[in-house]
Amino acid sequence: LGSMSYGVGDAHIFETDTCISIVQDNLFYGNDSFPLVLSTIELGQCKGNQFIDNGTEGILVRGGGDIRSSFRLENQGVPYVIDCYLVLNGWADALARLDIESGNVLAFRDEQFLIKGYGLLRAKGVTFTGHDSVWWGMKFEDSKADTSCLDSCIIEKARVYGGNWPKGAVDINNSWVWIKNSSIITNETGVYVSYHGKLELTNSLISQNRYGIYTGPYFDPESLYIKYNEIFGNKGAFIIPAYTYPYVITDSNWWGDETGPWDPSDGLPDYNPGGRGDSIGDYVEYRPWLTEPVHPSVVKLVWPNGGDTLYSGLTYKITWQRSVEPLRQELSWTPDFPEGGRQEPLWSLIDTVPVVDTSYLWTVPNIPSNRCRIAIKIYYGSEKLRIKETDRGTVVSGIERSPETDLIGFDISDQNFTIPITSDFARATAYNNGQKIIYDSYQNRLHFIFANEGWLVPAGIYYCSSRDQ
Question: Residue 105: beta bridge partners?
């Protein structure tokens, strides 16, 4: 299907069927929802299409089924929203190789991506993320006919469901995968390796995950090559839950501080209780570590940078500096910066900040802690519109990005700051702001004051009051 225009309104949403194999050089404009839906068993190829002023700018993929043949997923300037169980798996005599062009965004709607025995994935400059909800990551399962590669990619916001679903944003099960120049961030588990999976992880950022790298049953320590990465801001940087020998070699990585990773355990093979970097488990040989980040810093958090006291309910200006122009920038914070092996949730998003700003006015929440930190994260790169001459005149057919597109700059407070328990009664009570309502046996509504719930407060006299009966 080519050289057509589709709009305006839901009546003009175009949906492929098994008779359509290519959608090329079309204009989709003014539709109320997704203007293009791919519902074939095999993904239809999209080339040179333009999307303008649609209610949801994206290409919806649904229908499921295995992708059995090789093809290239081109960048159309809008995300592919995956609303099905996506499986890449060819044949013994013909691998299904999926090449994803730089600049593409694959946003999964509560779904997963499975690369099986005869599937091969090659992605460069691609973002894998969730759409309107979490997603469940990608799993390479018995995929070792050739090595799949994730180069300059962002893999983010994946959660762990369990069972046969992926156990990490990237789950490598008896497969061969090379990850380089990539960012694996804000996931439950960043990379999970099991059953003789082979992983080469280089020049990448592993940050803001609960676990950075986690190993499962029958993983092979000698099949892991992990060097020249920045691994910090995770609850646990590298976790090996059971005795392992030979030990895993992870030297020449940056763990977030020049003193190296925090290793308070006297288990084998090392011990580094004075390390101020990410926590790390036993059976990992991490010496010598890098004493400065792999990449030059492009963003620096200026304030709050540690040692300060911020009071709940008051507004403060968070400031940062940067040396690049961002495509997007996000602020996060944590009241529970890792120490002592605690495993509570880590980072919470404060806000997405306009790209022209280098400051943000933050009203401090009523969550007392002496282990608070702020994080600034910027996405940057270069991009230009792909211009094309057609019989309709000059149109924009997509976004063309450099190989460096969607790099991430990241910085956190150097030390903890404190939010004390407030002494102002008006700020110490929540009344019914949190909508925490229960009913007694007579069906009377009971409202609770709970702003400091779960925290130990100083000894003293406290008053409870109700505005109902």
Answer: 127
- Identify the three-state secondary structure at position 426: helix
Q: What angle do CA 99, 101, 107 make, to 5 degrees?
A: 95
Check residue 10 and give left, alpha or beta (phi > 0: left; psi -120 to 50: alpha): alpha
Return d(Cα 415, Cα 193) in angstroms, integer: 32
Please write the tens of the pLDDT for every residue from 12-48: 345 554 445 678 888 888 888 888 888 755 666 788 8
Question: Integer distance in angstroms from the first to the last C-alpha of the chain?
Answer: 68
**What phi and psi values does residue 221 have, to the nearest 5 degrees?**
-55, -35
Contact 230, 203 (CB under 8 A): no
Question: Tell me, what DSSP letter sits at residue 222?
Answer: G
Q: Give residue-wise pLDDT tens across range 339-362.
A: 644 444 467 889 989 989 999 999
The stretch 99-117 carries a mean pLDDT of: 90
8 A C-beta contact, residue 338 and residue 275: no
Consecutive H or E run containing 72: strand 71-73
Contact 43, 67 (CB under 8 A): yes
Strand partners, 411: 376
**DSSP E strands, 112-254:** 113-115, 119-124, 127-130, 138-141, 148-151, 154-156, 170-173, 176-180, 183-185, 189-194, 198-202, 205-207, 211-215, 224-227, 230-232, 236-239, 248-249
What residues contact residue 440 under an 8 Å CB cut-off, 6+ apart? 446
d(CA 374, CA 385): 34
CB atoms within 10 A of CB 367: 17
Query: Quick one: average pLDDT of 296-306?
Result: 89
Among 321, 331, 408, which residue's Cα sits nearest to residue 373? 331
Rounded Cα distance, 391 and 466, in Å: 72
Q: What HEC string does 371-409 produce?
A: EEEEEEEEEECCEEEEEEEECCEEEEEEEEECCCCCEEE
CA 138 to chain centre: 12
The DSSP result for 99-138, as a single string, is: EE-TT-EEEESS--EEE-TTEEEEEES-EEEESSS-B--E
359: which residues sit within 8 A by CB, 6+ positions away? 317, 318, 319, 320
Q: Tokens at residue 195, please?
A: 């059953």
Instruction: Return the ∠ at Cα 415 (arms to 412 and 420), rounded to 5°.
Output: 110
Peptide bond into 23 cis (omega under 30): no
Q: What is this structure's pTM?
A: 0.73
Cβ neighbourhood burial of 7 (10 Å; 0-12, 13-18, 19+): middle
